[in-house]
Amino acid sequence: MSRIGLSSYAFFWQLSDRVSAPISIHQALERTADLGVDLFQICDYAPLETMNDRELAALRDTAQRLGISLEVGTKGIEPEHLRHFLHIATVLGAPLLRTMFNSPGHAPTDEEAITIFTEVLPEFEAADVKIAVETYEQVPTSRILAVVTAVDSPYLGICSDPANTVASLEMPQQVIDAIAPYVLNMHVKDFGFTRKDGWVGFTYAGALLGEGLLDYDYMVTAFDPNRRNINQIVEHWLPWQDSEAETIRLENQWTQHSIQYLRSK
Fold first, then answer.
1. Domain ranges of the chain
2. How far apart are CA 159 and CA 187, in angstroms?
3. Can you state the angle between helices 172-179 and 216-223, rounded to 10 degrees?
4. Rounded distance, CA 36 to CA 7, Å?
5. Is the CB of residue 136 less than 8 Å from the CB of residue 113?
6. Which listed residue, 12, 33, 180, 256, has the most CB atoms within 10 A of its CB?
């Protein structure tokens, strides 16, 4: 069965220095449990990379106490970086690592990516941790697919996020169709365009799930997450509002709405 989870991106503003009293990742887990959710993806959360084993074990213990399973997310595919996050995933008991091809200072060619994954995947397979490469605007989906199919391992697949690819003029439905057989993880966030002041251009940002341009029903039909045990991770692209209090209120409201929406489906 597919499980519903929250990403650290569901607490993007509350975890950030933009608010006067940022919550900790332990508090984000507490909030997740309070919402009746038992899966959390710690994704692009910078402090995770520098945690020592004692700090990682404390995070794992918090999750276990709350009955929450963990997944991990980072950016980049340099071999030592992937090995470092494999260690993090192993300590946390996380069976999936989401990543992206590019990182600051490293933009691998397809051939380099194939070589790297071929080198490190036996270590991931031994630890029973899968890698899911996310679809996003910096790398054409066709390139991600070329690498994944060339490596041809059940431990390498795709993290679907059709919202990201719009910025490179890849339409969500086309991306969904192309990646469907290879999806290991789903990021679920809605999105839309609004006119800027004076009707000069648009803002592309998040929308309340079910009210934007994401065709969720089409995506679920294509991926069949329940049959394939693909977890659905809630994220947001919520712009900063007029005040900190309103931003936090809306972030929490969007999260609760997203959970209810997915459960209703």
1. 4-264
2. 7
3. 10
4. 14
5. no
6. 12
Question: Could you say which of 3.40.190.10, 3.20.20.150, 3.40.50.1450, 3.90.1590.10 is the CATH number of the domain covering 4-264?
Answer: 3.20.20.150
| φ/ψ (deg, to 5) at 104 | -55, 120
C-alpha gyration radius of the chain: 18
All residues at 6 or more sequence positions from 247 whose CB lies less than 8 Å from its CB, including other chains: 13, 19, 238, 240, 241
Give the CB-side neighbour count of residue 235, counting CA atoms within 13 A. 27
- CA-to-CA dists, residue 145 to 19, 166, 196, 198, angstroms: 39, 17, 35, 40
Contact criterion met (CB below 8 Å) for 248 and 14: yes
The C-alpha angle 132, 135, 138, rounded to 5 degrees, equals 125
Cross-strand partners of 204: 193
| DSSP code for 198 | G
Half-sphere exposure for 226 (CA within 13 Å, toward CB): 5
Q: Is the pLDDT of residue 167 over 90?
A: yes
Per-residue pLDDT tens over the stretch 119-162: 999 999 999 999 999 999 999 999 999 999 999 999 999 999 99
8-state DSSP, 239: P
CA gap 120, 123 in Å, rounded: 6
Q: How far is the C-alpha of 263 from the C-alpha of 242, rounded, in Å?
A: 31
Model pTM? 0.97
Q: Kind of pairing, strands 4-7 and 39-43? A: parallel
